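Aim 2 progress update. The chain analyzed this quarter is reproduced below.
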Amino acid sequence: MSFWWVFARLGRALLAAWGIASAIFLTVHLLPAAPDEFTLGDPSELGSAVSLRTSASRQAARQALRHRLGLDEPVFYLTRTAGRPVRWQWHGRHNQYHHWLSLLLRGNLGYSYRTGQPVAALLGPALAYSIPLMVLAAALATGLAIWLALGLANASGALTGWQAVARTLLTGIQALPLFSLSLALLLLLANPDLLNLLPADGMSTDYPPLGGVAWLASYGAHLVLPLLSLVLAVLPELTLPLEATLRQELRADYASTARSKGLTSWQVAYRHALPNALLPLLTSFTGLLPTMVAGTVVVEVLFALPGTGRLLAEAAATHDYPLVIASVLLTSIARMLALLLADVLYFWTDPRLRPSL
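Predicted structure tokens:
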């Protein structure tokens, strides 16, 4: 495979991620609700010497805050004046988008409107909770999907026993939204009136990032319900298409030839049919990342985990634009890299699809 082809695709992926982040930047900065309205509600942001009881003092405080956050500058290089006739005004480099892009090119994601901390410093600890959750969920869901698909595809005729139960459960879970599924698991496995097996009080951010058997035990216990929710949410989407493809491959001539040589049904399915059936699964696996990211937001808010999903939800609720845009940018980059990885795996699996460059 050509190195330049991979390099070109990587460049296009980064440009697409930048375009998405730019669109989100312009959209959120043009919303009618401003972040200073939320910040002014916190007296500690302005200090005890500032009184917000009168409209004049509140207006002065708002102007000072907007100047400190850079919100008093134009949003983009070119803006349209209000009223008639319509005129366009060029602002040069003195605009919010140029400042954001300049910081981004230097590796700076900006500063939080709420806390004033660097966005990277806020995302780092949150990613330490979210990345293991997403990686474990993706690995477990993929492994379970392959095992279930092999078992269901090897059924001859009508499904019996565990195969019928598994197919019914997968079909039922596929119809449930992630929030409903997570809430059902929470009420079933962390309910004192039913099965109080797992903690549901959330994980404190006071835990050290690494260290100690007690911390690992607590982290693992708090991770079970979110992990189970994510795995069950994506398991039908991976299992059912793979099973259908495996059934089609097992009816091919090469599968009949392998069985005539004395191989068992599992050997034929695992050694011969599965490699050919995994190619369509790569598309489903590529779409797994955005599903995991969106699902992480739901489960981290529901189970009170201090990860990126919860951080993003709080930032969106308080109009903390730098944090929202940085989260969208990272998600877009991960999505584009997943698409690139899928293409590479396609070409590696099937040499006929490789580019000529």
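Residues 119-353 form a domain with the MetI-like fold fold (CATH 1.10.3720.10). The longest strand covers residues 78-80. These observations will guide the mutagenesis experiments scheduled for the next reporting period.
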